[in-house]
Amino acid sequence: MSTRIRIKTNKGNIVVRLYDETPKHRDNFVKLVKEQYFNGTLFHRVIKDFMIQGGDPNSKNAPKGKMLGTGGPDYTIPAEIVYPQLFHKRGALSAARTADEVNPERESSGSQFYIVWGKTYNANELKQMEKQMAMQQEQMVFDGLKKIYYAEIMELRKNRNREGLMALQEKIIEETKAKCKEMGKPVFTPEQTEAYTTLGGTPFLDNQYTVFGEVEEGLDIVENIQNIATMPNDRPEEDIVMEMEIVE
After folding, report:
1. What value does the mean pLDDT take over residues 75-92?
2. First to last CA, the chain
3. Rounded to whole angstroms, how far apart are CA atoms 35 and 29?
4. What percent of the chain has pLDDT over 90?
5. Percent of the chain with pLDDT over 70
6. pLDDT of 154 above 90
7. Could you tell me which CATH number the domain at 3-120+199-246 has?
8. For helices 190-198 and 123-148, what crossing angle results, to 10°?
9. 131 phi and psi, to 5 degrees?
């Protein structure tokens, strides 16, 4: 039986179901709930038509104007990106993390999470996103191959061998094309398309962050929270305080 967590706030209650497909995230979240880690923390970052974020222990009793969003336990969680099965539909519970530049393995914060709101998209918008996803995939593969050939590139540069550099670049481009063909073009599944055109969500986050649960009750509360007034740093003007408990 799936684990369910009740997030009690001063705006109402939200019940989330944790996915068994992401056991490390599930077990960590349950552990923190049992330790009452989240009690007294805030939804410290709220962006309308995007998401609501919480889980920063530094947000407990945080004075107005305090910068939040960097707190957490002294560990991260290995990514459990189960894509395309688990995706960023409206109500998805996902793990926050630091950027790719400092976190190429896309490991999750030990405690910070967000609940997706997003927006609905039409079919043409999703097709355009698929094109962007294909370009991003190509760039990612190209960058990965450049790292493999890094020593050779530097040697050619050192020797000012422009002809050799051009030849190597062509080789990397051809290998990129072959690899991308092998991987297949990224496309939204019928389930994703249905969700993003009817329910809504944030498809541009797919395959980049770990989705480890979803809202089962209280999506209207998520809507109310993401609509509230915020300060320039995206912190709500009114503190949205939470407590969590396991639903028996």
Report:
1. 97
2. 11
3. 10
4. 95
5. 100
6. yes
7. 2.40.100.10
8. 130
9. -65, -45
Q: Are 131 and 105 in contact (CB under 8 A)?
A: no
pLDDT at 248: 76
Write out the two tokens for 59.
């947000």
For 71-105, letters b (16+ CB in 10 Å) and e give bbbeebbebbbebeebbbbbbbbbbbbeeeeeeee
- pLDDT tens sequence across 85-139: 999 999 999 999 999 989 989 999 999 999 999 999 999 999 999 999 999 999 9
Closest listed residue to residue 20, CA positions, set 206, 209, 191, 212: 212
User: What's CA 193's distance to the chain center, in Å?
Assistant: 19
pLDDT band for 72, please (50, 70, 90 cuts).
Answer: very high
Type of residue numbered 45: R
- Find out whether 222 and 91 touch, Cβ atoms under 8 Å: yes
Tokens 């590139």 found at: 153
Going from N- to C-terminal start, the domains of the chain cover: 3-120+199-246, 123-183
User: Are 76 and 210 spatial neighbours (Cβ–Cβ below 8 Å)?
Assistant: no
Q: Which two tokens stand for residue 197?
A: 């055109």
Identify the sign of the CA torsion 194, 199, 202, 208: negative
User: Exposed, middle or buried by CB within 10 Å (0-12, 13-18, 19+), for 230?
Assistant: middle
116 closest CA partner among 55, 192, 52, 25: 52
Q: Output the pLDDT for position 2.
A: 84
